Sequence to fold (668 residues):
Amino acid sequence: MNNKEKAVGRRMPDTHIMTILGLMVLVIIMMLIFQPGNYFTLMNLRSMIYQFPEYGILSLGMMACMIAGGIDLSLVGIMNFTGVLAALIVKNMVTEEGGMAAPAIILAVIVALAVGGLCGAFNGFIIGYFNIPAMLVTLCGLQLYKGLAYGITGGPAINGMCDPFKEIANGSIAGIPYALFIFIVVVLIVSFVMKSTVFGNEIYFLGSNAQAAKYSGINTLKVTVMTHMFSGILGGCSGILITSHLNSAKSSNGETYTLLSLLIVVLGGVHPDGGKGRVMGVVLATILLQMIANALGLMHIDDNTKTFINGCMLVAALLLDVYLDKRAAKRA
Amino acid sequence: MNNERRVSLALTSTPMILIYVMVVFCVIAAIRQPAFLSPATLINLCRAGIFTMCFAICEMVVIISGGIDVSFPAIGCVAMYVPMYMYNNGMGVDSVFFFFGVAILIGLAFGILNGVLVAILKLPPLIATLATSSVASGGLIMLLGTREFTTLPPSLDWLYSINLLTYTDPATGFKYPLTILFLVPVILCIVVALVLRYTMLGRGLYAIGGDKNAARVAGFNVKKLQFTAYIFCSVMASATAMMYTTLMHSSTTTALMGEEMIIIAACVVGGCRLTGGHGSVGGTILGVLLITLVQNNLNMLGVPTSWQIFAVGLVLLLGAVLSSIQAKRIEKLGKI
Fold:
């Protein structure tokens, strides 16, 4: 019995990962047929790598919250708010000749991560303490942080940061972008936290049954606050990346990322009701979506069509989830 | 003793607190800007509140049934854009019925889509309607492109020019007309309030919002009720979007996007609970009033324009916290 349960539990995410891998192969075959010259070049591979870390990291934050049974819609708000703060720090500290660049960037990164964590913790506290649905609180949070960013900038974007700051997301070493290293480090940290710490296990517990988690002695308020703080820190990290990547910070950057990160997370096999999901699936889903976005870009398909396709894929991913759930229930 | 308690409970209930907040807001605004105290403000408030009110009633019905719909702005955009596009490309007749009819048909189609996703396929409502939203808005621009229609066809212009009453400011001579479409939210509120209170349909919506399984056991057709809620929401949202085009003289592919946040917040501030089963038309009206008042008159309080998004967010968050505290209090008092 125990063995069987384990087998079913293990097969579930695996089917997801197999599906994603299958879709990747499909994309590659399609591109082999339609765009063999453009798609399989080193240039294109690098341009893909420059793009996905921003929303890949956001999706990991979304994943943590969703596994805990909630959702974090404020991530884009946190991303832009921290991005604006970082841009201000870099812009004001670095002198004309480029002096003070290193300390300014370090300070900007620390401030972004800390403020991101604070924003997340604030969300988590309101959710846990007042027992308000995460969806509502994070929607309000989105408005709040977006409003803060808008209030600070007054509308126009902050542009023209120093070169070393641009290098964070645009630079590369031996042809491999720094952004990829940052993404890998973040993925390793997140998977360590989710898999090998007590906190990670508590997130899974909380998501599968909040009531039971409470009665078995888990401080649900603390776990909720920490989960959202974790997600907020990831939002801050992504804020640094996007600000550096675009070399500009404003309150409305990357507004499609909310839908995109939801899509990635659901496609990656995280259950919308919480309790289930793996970092591996989310990472693979991020890469898959980047491959698709890139393929569509090469075929000169505009952003609105991408939004349309993403919406359809979200529904398809959800349907796949329902189907897999039913099959698993039948086997058990 | 018991009486005193009831009075104190009534004085601190959510609607009363909303009223206090609004009174304080108005007093401060009136002190800072004496011009606030004029019928013109009232008429502006009514005009600005028309769409918010209609959307909020739509959303409220879905929230009461235990779901959520974030797709109505996108559906509304499709519904306001497609008829104008058809008219400007020589398809369709110049008639109010044509414009509203097409809009309502579009709403019906998307409502059925939402209903299928949520009621039959049992997808989480938030994510399902988010997907519908991106399919609707992405598909619209993909198929029909982005244009802006700013000239109304004669029939809609005729509808626009009918006013209930017109107030002329004696000092400046400005005219403040109140359009006939103001009657739509008024009638909608009355009808929805009656349906929710006195019909099996209305009670069923509350029942499935409270506990789906219990409602099913009690003999309610859960799927049918969910379908009704989502279809009502989309259809009404589409009609409202057409009203928006009529009153604002504009029809674009993104005019309403981003509206869902404010509308959901208006419902929640007015006492709807996102977990379903709670909420009333009266509360929602108060919530909408508060939000419209805040949105349109923040500059009278001296809040700079660039901080208004933040201020609205703050008001929404406070509203959510407030209604949760109220819910906890009522739960404690319930078991006497």
